[in-house]
Design goal:
Blueprint: H1 8-28, H2 35-38, E1 40-47, H3 53-63, E2 69-71, E3 77-82, H4 87-101, E4 104-112, H5 114-142, H6 146-174, H7 180-211, H8 215-247, H9 250-272, H10 274-285
Antiparallel strand pairs: 1-3, 1-4, 2-3
Helix pairs in contact: 1-6, 5-6, 5-7, 6-7, 6-9, 6-10, 7-8, 7-9, 8-9
Length: 289
């Protein structure tokens, strides 16, 4: 039987390093919110002929059009986010684009006011906080001990915080913005992180009751019994997400990247963080069997 917990301080050190890097980036670089949160205009259109991103950027600058982000994967389909743009301002801009590059086909245009963005941000924070609290009490009831729930929640928050840090770094170097799809990815990460942790904690409880041995032996036994299944389950998800990152469209790419990072973090934390945390909580609070 592999003694996973003999390396618990290595796991804690890895997590601490990732948390410090995430905190540093979130403090200094911050996140780059999309118009979903700040308000503004979203414009998606397609050219009939290929136009490079550099040429379109130069055109916008010459025209005097201030935009926040310009995205394209193929040189034909473009997505532009900008400060609020009225129809009366968009129409002459569209005519100027067509005069320069040829006809475009508009797929989507919408404008969100700043009040809508603030309301969405409030709802997002409320959703994350309420989900965390509900999961804590559900796990405390399901596992018959509040500290089991606390261990799972700490692992879950660890994953979510590092995911935010990763996207803060991506925003600094690649200009990646967070939107409502990113919120969906964060909430999915919360649930995925807890899923494997509950399976392992259940196995720990069963082994403690069955053998009456020490908690450290029960945790090692549970990890040896569940780790292969956890890794296999995660790999099936990771392979699918990798395929979407490589072959999927640009509009969902960073959403898929967020899911991929969250899946990897959830697999790591449920096995190598949540269980050592349970052991340390046991030492501090004398966890009941």
């Amino acid at each position: 039987m592999i003694n996973f917990l003999r390396l618990k301080w290595v796991y804690f050190s890895v997590s601490a390093a990732l948390l410090v890097l995430s905190a540093y980036s979130l403090f200094f670089n911050r996140l780059k919110p999309s118009i979903d949160f700040t308000g503004g205009s979203f414009w998606e259109f397609r050219f009939s002929q290929e136009v490079t991103k550099e040429d379109l950027t130069a055109f916008f600058n010459d025209y005097g059009f201030a935009f926040n982000q310009l995205k394209s994967n193929d040189g034909f389909l473009y997505v532009v986010s900008a400060p609020p743009l009225e129809q009366s301002d968009k129409q002459p801009l569209q005519l100027a684009i067509e005069e320069k590059f040829g006809q475009i086909q508009e797929h989507r245009f919408e404008t969100l006011g700043p009040n809508v963005g603030k309301e969405l941000l409030f709802k997002t924070v409320t959703a994350v906080c309420s989900t965390t609290i509900l999961i804590l009490f559900y796990l405390a009831w399901r596992l018959k001990n509040l500290l089991y729930g606390l261990g799972a929640i700490l692992g879950m928050l660890h994953d979510s915080f590092i995911l935010l840090g990763v996207f803060s770094w991506l925003g600094k170097f690649w200009g990646v913005q967070i939107d409502t799809l990113f919120v969906t990815a964060v909430l999915t990460t919360l649930s995925f992180s807890v899923h494997d942790t509950v399976v392992i904690y259940n196995s720990v409880q069963e082994e403690v009751k069955k053998s009456g041995g020490s908690l450290i032996d029960s945790i090692n036994f549970a990890l040896n019994r569940t780790i292969i299944r956890s890794i296999n389950n995660s790999l099936t998800i990771i392979f699918m997400l990798l395929a979407l990152v490589l072959l999927g469209g640009g509009t969902i790419r960073w959403f898929v990247v967020a899911l991929l990072v969250g899946t990897i973090l959830g697999t790591y934390s449920s096995t190598f963080l949540a269980t050592p945390l349970l052991l340390e909580l046991n030492k501090i609070f004398k966890l009941k069997k």
